[in-house]
From TrEMBL:
<dbReference type="GO" id="GO:0004318">
    <property type="term" value="F:enoyl-[acyl-carrier-protein] reductase (NADH) activity"/>
</dbReference>
<dbReference type="InterPro" id="IPR036291">
    <property type="entry name" value="NAD(P)-bd_dom_sf"/>
</dbReference>
<keyword id="KW-0275">Fatty acid biosynthesis</keyword>
<feature type="binding site">
    <location>
        <position position="98"/>
    </location>
    <ligand>
        <name>substrate</name>
    </ligand>
</feature>
<dbReference type="Pfam" id="PF13561">
    <property type="entry name" value="adh_short_C2"/>
</dbReference>
<comment type="subunit">
    <text>Homotetramer.</text>
</comment>
<dbReference type="InterPro" id="IPR002347">
    <property type="entry name" value="SDR_fam"/>
</dbReference>
<dbReference type="GO" id="GO:0050661">
    <property type="term" value="F:NADP binding"/>
</dbReference>
<feature type="binding site">
    <location>
        <position position="13"/>
    </location>
    <ligand>
        <name>NAD(+)</name>
    </ligand>
</feature>
<comment type="pathway">
    <text>Lipid metabolism; fatty acid biosynthesis.</text>
</comment>
<keyword id="KW-0520">NAD</keyword>
<feature type="binding site">
    <location>
        <begin position="194"/>
        <end position="198"/>
    </location>
    <ligand>
        <name>NAD(+)</name>
    </ligand>
</feature>
<keyword id="KW-0560">Oxidoreductase</keyword>
<protein>
    <recommendedName>
        <fullName>Enoyl-[acyl-carrier-protein] reductase [NADH]</fullName>
        <ecNumber>1.3.1.9</ecNumber>
    </recommendedName>
</protein>
<keyword id="KW-0276">Fatty acid metabolism</keyword>
<feature type="active site" description="Proton acceptor">
    <location>
        <position position="158"/>
    </location>
</feature>
<dbReference type="InterPro" id="IPR014358">
    <property type="entry name" value="Enoyl-ACP_Rdtase_NADH"/>
</dbReference>
């Protein structure tokens, strides 16, 4: 029933084979979606090669540079989508960043620039991408972003990223309200801790994973594929009545009090 044949899906945030975005891309592809991939460009082209080599088995029909801090690149990305595909059905937002120094120590020591950077990349980027995507979702669509429990509860060594995730989750609700009349659904997935390139910047990530394995009802953490399955569901007609929601995919950890 999870059939995305004929659907065009643009995926952001793939960095390596541990990326949750990579897990989502694989599951979308298995469901039949036509995949497009963006990558963060760098001067030496290392990220482009890494992501291109990784995603080659999915045969993406679009492979585009997109630094969300550069409005011209964002516009160029969606211009390319329009030219090649004509329309967009699915947008996957897996983008987050904060300076390592702003994730540790006292939260009140967060620098002004660090605060702005975390909010811009991790939260505002969803607004900017959705603004561009909505014009191409002429037959409706689904936008899915990734968040974390640290956006609603205090998590050690998360600091400013928790503020960014809180903003991201409100973005989901406001965008869902705006885009709903166009049959565009917007949802977030709050995934349990997974060892990824991004999470490696969070101090004690392995301790967090082990804690979830001890406390969560399922007594384990989740995999990239499981998050990918949830995203595929949210992008499918099976979730046609679901919008503005944060779906916890964390082995049930979120329900526990202690």
């Amino acid at each position: 029933m999870l059939d995305l044949t004929g659907k065009n899906a643009l995926v952001t945030g793939i960095a390596n084979n541990r990326s949750i975005a990579w897990g989502i891309s694989q599951q979308l592809s298995k469901a039949g979606a036509n995949i497009g991939v963006t990558y963060l460009p760098d001067e030496k082209g290392r990220m482009e090669k890494k992501v291109r080599d990784l995603t080659e088995p999915l045969n993406p029909s679009l492979f585009l540079p997109c630094n969300v801090q550069n409005d011209d690149q964002v516009t160029a990305t969606f211009d390319a989508v329009k030219e090649s595909w004509g329309r967009l059905d699915i947008l996957i937002h897996c983008l987050a960043f904060a300076n390592r120094d702003d994730l540790t120590g006292d939260f009140s020591d967060t620098s002004r620039q660090g605060f702005q950077t975390a909010l811009e990349i991790s939260a505002y980027s969803l607004v900017k991408l959705a603004q561009q995507a909505k014009a191409l979702m002429t037959e409706g669509g689904s936008i899915v972003t990734l968040t974390y429990l640290g956006g609603v509860r205090v998590v050690p060594n998360y600091n400013v990223m928790g503020i960014a995730k809180a903003a991201l989750e409100m973005n989901v609700r406001y965008l869902a309200a705006e885009l709903g009349p166009g049959n565009i659904r917007v949802n977030g997935i709050s995934a349990g801790p997974i060892r990824t390139l991004a999470s490696s910047a969070v101090g004690g990530i392995l301790d967090m994973i082990h804690h979830v394995e001890e406390v969560a009802p399922l007594r384990r953490t989740v995999t990239q594929a499981e998050v990918g399955n949830a995203a595929t569901f949210l992008c499918s007609d099976l979730a046609s009545g679901v919008t503005g929601q944060i779906l916890y995919v964390d082995s049930g950890y979120e329900i526990m009090g202690m």
